[in-house]
Amino acid sequence: MRVIIVDDEKLARDAIIEIGTRRIPDFEVVAEAASIAEAKQAILKYQPDLLLLDIQLLDGSGFDLLDQFSLPLNFKVIFITAYEEYAIKAFKASVLDYLLKPIDADEFVTSINRAKFQLNLENFNKNLQTFIHLYHGYNSEQKQAIVIHSRSSLICLNHDEILRIEGEGNHANIFLLSGELIRVSRTLNSFEEELKGKGFLQSHKTHLVNIRYIKTFHSSELSLLMIDGTRVPVAFRRRSQVSYSIANWFK
Prior knowledge:
Number of domains: 2
Oligomer: single chain
Mean pLDDT: 87
Radius of gyration: 28 Å
CATH class of the largest domain: Alpha Beta
Order of helices and strands: EHEHEEEHEHEHEEEEEHEEEEEH
Shape: rod-shaped
CATH architecture of the largest domain: 3-Layer(aba) Sandwich
CATH superfamily of the largest domain: Response regulator
Distance between the termini: 54 Å
Strand content: 25-35%
């Protein structure tokens, strides 16, 4: 979590840093500021996730700083101040939380965790909307892409991005035309079923190749030479099917 601390008192900034670094593992202070001018410059430069903001600053108030950015803000805001009377105004300005000085460490950690939860939820929703948009952007009968799960990510791959797929038990290695390798927890057979009739050929029990990128079929050697120079084995019993599929695809 990228954090900017805005407070005109260095002791207050140091106290926040001490609690944050001691109690919160991913608490990263990317900048400190004592004024509106310094804070605005730091925000534009570092694009923080979270702004820890005092009310009274050297050249105005924390509200004056927020007024210089259009809504909705692309960062979360927590006020940390000695002025209790500004709480209602702060929440009307859509700040996430309002903490009073001196800072209570437990309240501070709870507030930061709330900010992290909100950020994670927003990122998840953005990724989900992107996925839905990509998924429904293809005709249901003629989709030219597949969606795969890689660790915590959803990745949408066009068919022509995939060079070949190699199976390893319940896992598969997806080799992309770009040279990138993606490892997923999924069987080769499941890919074969999804990509059937879409320009992919299972040459071997552990290999699925994109016919578009086959350079040479060495029938006598039982191998395929891909355009990246990789040689892929061909099972003897699949030799005729491989030859037929290649010839039929390029008709």
